[in-house]
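To: structure subgroup
Subject: Chain for Friday's discussion

All,

I'm putting the inputs and outputs inline so they're searchable in the archive.
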Amino acid sequence: MIRIIDISKLYKDNARLRDINFYIETVLQLAGDGNDVVITGQGPVWLYLKIAHALHGKARKLIYRSPVTGDVVIFDHSVD
């Protein structure tokens, strides 16, 4: 199953480092276990990095999607 998570929906106005645990918990719930996950939407680099780290070992595959780059595979544990 593919789960698409829009990072910009996690916060209002500006992401705050003090709320990082809330962001990560929310993303982990949205991602589920063993799914392909696409992260997209505007957000600070530090938030993308923390989320990618949190999803490692939880998601089967992680993709970053941008209108500029298209899909970029961050990790893929579905291949040998």
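Points worth raising on Friday:
The chain has one domain: 2-76.
Residues 20-31 form the longest helix (12 residues).

D.
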